[in-house]
């Protein structure tokens, strides 16, 4: 790879990670205080709490939301099933928002790196994008970065949506079970296995391609 191309990839990677990290460095304390106060205020109103949690997790792609803390608190405040729905909805909306935000900048991305490098990224995501999305969903920073690069690479949206939806379901089940641990160990074990099974199922489904029409 030419030195200039390597430099551009390096700059792009730094830019993406700074986009995610800088808000945390600047606003993490104030955001944590705001979330804690809002949760305390809304805890007697479960529907409002669920909506608030979903909106917070949706905006995680832009704002320094302490998503793991929010998701765990959701389990304690709402219980296992309602919190799973709220967490899953917010995470999935976040993925969709991040994907389409990245798609808006795909042309500028191609101009910056060149058509050849954009094609290289598309090839990488065509081969390994399923694993990247599934394995990065529970990992802070990498979760957002993988979504952004999926959008820049033009990953097929329906495959991306199916995979991220099922992977988010597994992650949401785990967070909800941890937060609602009083519901019993069985709920946590079920959620833990779901966090593994659902991404695997998603990758299996998205890898399937109908056979080409055969001549009769």
Description:
The chain has 216 residues and is mainly α. The chain is built from nine helices and no strands. It is globular and about 55 Å long. The relative contact order is 0.12.
Number of E strands: 0
Binned, the helix content reads over 70%
Proportion of beta-strand residues: under 5%
Helix tally equals 9
Low-confidence sequence ranges: 209-216
Judging from the principal axes of the Cα atoms, what is the shape? globular
Structural class: mainly alpha
Radius of gyration: 19 Å
Q: What is the element string, with H for helices and E for strands?
A: HHHHHHHHH
Distance between the termini: 48 Å
Average pLDDT reading? 76
Quickly describe the structure.
The chain is mainly α. Helix content is 82%, strand content 0%.
Write the layout of secondary structure elements.
Elements: H1 3-42, H2 46-58, H3 67-78, H4 80-104, H5 106-113, H6 115-136, H7 142-152, H8 157-179, H9 185-207
Keywords:
disordered C terminus; single chain
């Amino acid at each position: 790879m030419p030195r200039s191309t390597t430099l551009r990839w390096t700059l792009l990677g730094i830019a993406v990670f700074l986009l995610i990290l800088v808000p945390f460095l600047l606003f993490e304390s104030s955001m944590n205080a705001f979330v804690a106060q809002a949760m305390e205020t809304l805890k007697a109103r479960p529907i409002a709490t669920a909506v608030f949690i979903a909106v917070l997790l949706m905006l995680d792609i832009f704002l320094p939301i302490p998503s793991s803390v929010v998701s765990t608190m959701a389990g304690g405040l709402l219980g296992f099933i309602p919190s799973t729905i709220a967490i899953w909805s917010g995470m999935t909306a976040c993925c969709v928002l991040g994907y389409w935000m990245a798609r808006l900048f795909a042309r500028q991305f191609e101009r910056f790196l060149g058509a050849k490098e954009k094609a290289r990224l598309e090839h990488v995501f065509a081969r390994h994008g399923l694993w990247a999305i599934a394995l990065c969903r529970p990992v802070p920073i990498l979760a957002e970065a993988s979504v952004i690069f999926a959008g820049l690479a033009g990953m097929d949206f329906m495959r991306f949506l199916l995979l991220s939806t099922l992977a988010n379901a597994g992650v949401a089940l785990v967070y909800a079970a941890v937060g609602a641990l009083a519901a019993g160990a069985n709920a946590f074990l079920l959620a833990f296995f779901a966090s593994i099974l659902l991404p695997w199922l998603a990758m299996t489904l998205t890898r399937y391609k109908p056979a080409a029409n055969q001549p009769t």
